[in-house]
Amino acid sequence: MDSAGVHRSVGPELDSYGIRDGHSFGTGTDLEADAADVRVHDSGERTEPVGDTIWQVTSEPLPHPVTGDLFDSPVTPGTGWPGDPATARTPVARTVKQVETLAGRAGSLAELDASVSVCRACPRLVLWRETVATEGKRASFADQPYWGRPGPGFGDPEPAVLIVGLAPAANGTNRTGRMFTGDRSGDWIYAALYRAGYASQPTSSHSGDGQTLTGVRIVAAVRCAPPANKPTPTERDTCGHWLDRDLTLAAPGLRSMLALGAIGWDATLASARRLGWDVPRPKPRFTHGAEITLITSGDRPIRLLGSYHVSQQNTFTGKLTETMLDEVLARL
Ligand code: SF4
User: Is 167 a pocket residue for ligand 1 (Cβ < 6 Å)?
Assistant: First the structure.
């Protein structure tokens, strides 16, 4: 038993979901950052078994806005959340090396999404996303369960177009579990994707709302909601392994990619370089409407376009208009 009153035992490196100690929650002390698994708590807080692991419940279960099913916050993997790609047995990455290993092992986008959705490799971001999901909910969403996990890719399992965003929003994807879903940025991108014929409906409010994408997959440079929307360079590098695998698995069918904002642009170029793709030099500058051609290691040309990010900062100020976004999407 450690000083926090938690019994711990060493588990297999990659086979269980990490647990945060309820006593230390919100204090900056995070006990999941090593290879040990909490097995028994003395705190009196409720814990639930998930396969051969234990998932600590940090808040009262609340009903999903669409299905009405009850969920903990953060959502326990494999408990029926609409679109949850993981199961209780999905291996968990806790270090950058494990991210690299699991990303490299993913044989399909579905497998990749499952691994991404339970990743715990960045302690600062894990603490932030789970703090928001429990103690830091926006008041208007206080009656909803929060996903509180990384945002897995969303869309067509064999995409012709890959959209690379920045990172989930704390009360958007971090609440709904789906990329660009449940926030103003999502209102913009899904409406535009609907106008362009890629989305089945113009809105995207919750997982389980019937939204589907055809021909398009949406991912992000960083898959966890960062404080102040600012991931650190280390967090970007760590999460870059997931993006590398996304590009690798999608590449055979891709004709184009859309990077949202300079960070999405830089992350996509960096990933392409790591994969040995031919990237123009000097590094092409991000601008709205920029377009370059990347050549994959399999000699396939894939066009990369840039758009201002669909953030409120850009859409409220008119820096990005619907027409501007539509024009870029029409070129994908
Ligand atoms: Fe894992 Fe990426 Fe989230 Fe870091 S930001 S914990 S690498 S999913």
Answer: no
pTM of the model: 0.84
**Parts of the chain belonging to CATH 3.40.470.10:** 149-329
Nearest atom in ligand 1 to 222's CA:
5
CATH number of the domain located at residue range(s) 149-329 in this protein:
3.40.470.10
Q: What's the confidence (pLDDT) of residue 84?
A: 98
Strands 256-260 and 301-307: parallel
Query: CA-CA distance, 121 to 305, in Å (whole number)?
Result: 30
- Band of pLDDT at residue 60, cut at 50, 70 and 90: confident
Please work out whether the CB of residue 222 comes within 6 Å of at least one atom of ligand 1: yes
Q: Does any ligand 1 atom lie closer than 6 A to the CB of residue 112?
A: no
Buried b (16+ CB within 10 A) or exposed e, 136-158: ebeeebeebbbbbbbbbbbbbee
Which residue from 216, 231, 109 is spatially nearest to 167, judged by alpha carbons? 231
| 66-77 per-position pLDDT tens digit | 999 999 999 999
Ligand 1 near 54 CB (within 6 A): no
pLDDT reported for residue 14: 34
d(CA 128, CA 148): 9
